[in-house]
Amino acid sequence: MTRAGTVAQPQDLIDVAALERAYFELVPDVSNPDQAVAFGTSGHRGSAFDTAFNEAHILAITQAICEYRAGQGITCPLFIGRDTHALSLPAERTALEVLVANGVRVCADARGSVTPTPAVSRAILAYNATASAEDRADGIVVTPSHNPPRDGGFKYNPPHGGPADSDATGWIAKRANELIAAGLEGVQRADVTGGSDTRVELYDFREAYVNALGSVIDFDAIKASGIRIGADPLGGAAVDYYGAIAERYGIDLTVTNPIVDPTWAFMTLDWDEKIRMDCSSPNAMASVLARRDEFDILTGNDADADRHGIVTPDGGLMNPNHFLAVAIEYLYAHRPQWRPDAAIGKTLVSSSMIDRVAEALGRRLWEVPVGFKWFVPGLVDGSVGFGGEESAGASFLQSDGTVWTTDKDGILLCLLASEIRAVTGKSPSQLYGELTERFGAPVYERVDAPASREQKARLGKLTGDAVTATELAGDPIVAKLTEAPGNGAAIGGLKVVTERAWFAARPSGTEDVYKIYAESFAGPEHLRQVQAEAKRIVDDALGA
């Protein structure tokens, strides 16, 4: 019998003291790929227990960032924030030691507290909006996002405020591994007493973020409606932000769970019986769902608040794809100051319901590879009004059509759900039901298929010519994509499209599998057929 969806038990909890000891005591061997610095789409992640996220990693990565930003002419300040994971505070302190020693003007939280990812992105963009080209800011967020409590994470945000591109992260990772291999020779380090150190400037991330929210969310409508809002930060960095938002804007918002605990003992277990702060998972959100009838809108966030989970009394936890479609239709009808040609941004594994909504709105669809970094240029110049991922990450422009954040903002999307309910009088799940009446009801699922390291490498380099099939689940294939239609960037995999369905296959970065994303507008049985044929098509292309 599975324990998924039940409250964590003592045997599920980490030993925080042992984890911190491992952080300081274990030394990585970068000749071992599992212990080397490696930046994925959301930075370097791993556990100190596995010698994958340790003091040596953070010393070397931070030194590499100092050298990178100097080479790029980035003069300062560097905004640094952290989430509530046990490894985040020691990693932040380690980073401060290196930043100060390198003479970097660094700004940490004025309250000595935790900082959501979007608040760091917002701080970077707000500073750079009035700074000269020679005085640019960037940032670091210490977070493994929704990963289990044993993990740590470290990501770099350059002056555009969003996730760093592979050009930057590749250079930083290579240099960091060189430094570790050299026994950290070349790493500059100073004794730093934390946020009270006079060499560390203080910045009130919360006040700046909360005060600016009125430029992107219609709080007057929310307040006037009187709707009851519940927000569960899931023990993450948004915990102090929602109370401040409620007070600042006078809305009926209750923080349903104010507990912060680095073991996350209050969490319900995810599908694999692990603690994971995945606000799009019904199992991880089980305790939140239990209170759905108490509020008109109930929301959850992951540890760094870059993802959103939307719960309604009538629909329960919404599939992220469903909420993205509703949010898009609402925003493009209620933001008249956005550019009339502002495109709709989606990743190529997001639902085709978004395609249908975009067509009905007469808006250009901008389909890009997986990774929020692809939305950054469009959000910066206002040519993309909304960018969203199927994994419950999104952001959109301020009401005047200028950039809000260039990293995912889970707080923003949660508040948008309340605005939608307040303005339309309908829940986002009711509005999604109306979309299905117009466009059909798609069925969506992601599954894994086994693949060796070599097969994964081949999948990442496939071309459409490798696919010889002409049909998928009884329908003619209309597109075989290895490059994203929106920007022509390589997708690192394959997408096959018909009029009624599609699948995309991408190699996993951490496991010996490839991921098959699939969707059908012809029902669950057709989806199963699509998935089966997808595996066969991919295996044939790989020569499996």
Structure characterization notes:
With 544 residues, this protein is an alpha/beta fold. Among the domains are: 16-208, Alpha-D-Glucose-1,6-Bisphosphate, Chain A, domain 3, CATH 3.40.120.10; 443-542, TATA-Binding Protein (2-Layer Sandwich), CATH 3.30.310.50. It is built from 16 helices and 23 strands. The chain has helices at 16-25, 55-71, 88-101, 117-130, 166-181, 205-212, 219-225, 239-249, 286-289, 320-334, 353-361, 376-381, 410-424, 428-439, 453-460, 524-542; strands spanning 39-40, 43-47, 78-82, 106-109, 138-142, 151-157, 200-203, 229-232, 253-255, 297-301, 308-312, 316-317, 343-347, 365-368, 384-389, 393-396, 443-450, 471-472, 475-476, 479-483, 490-497, 501-507, 513-520. A seven-stranded mixed β-sheet has the order 1-2-6-5-3-4-7, sandwiched between helices. A five-stranded mixed β-sheet has the order 9-8-10-11-12. Helix 11 links the parallel strand 13 and strand 14 (365-368). Helix 6 crosses helix 8 (239-249) and helix 10 runs parallel beside helix 11. The longest helix has 19 residues, at 524-542. It is globular and about 65 Å long. The mean pLDDT is 96.
Q: What is the count of DSSP helices, taking H or I runs of 4+ residues? A: 16
Distance between the termini: 35 Å
What does the overall shape look like? globular
| Relative strand content | 15-25%
- Rounded to the nearest angstrom, the radius of gyration is 23 Å
Strand order of the largest sheet: 1-2-6-5-3-4-7
Assembly state of the chains shown: single chain
Q: How many strands? A: 23
As a percent range, the share of helical residues equals 25-40%
CATH class of one domain: Alpha Beta
CATH fold annotation of one domain: Alpha-D-Glucose-1,6-Bisphosphate, Chain A, domain 3
> Which second-level CATH architecture of one domain applies?
3-Layer(aba) Sandwich
Mean pLDDT: 96
For the record, what is the CATH homologous superfamily label of one domain? Alpha-D-Glucose-1,6-Bisphosphate, subunit A, domain 3
Q: Residue ranges: pLDDT <50 for 5 or more in a row?
A: none
SS-derived structural category: alpha/beta
**How would you sum up the major sheet?**
7 strands, mixed
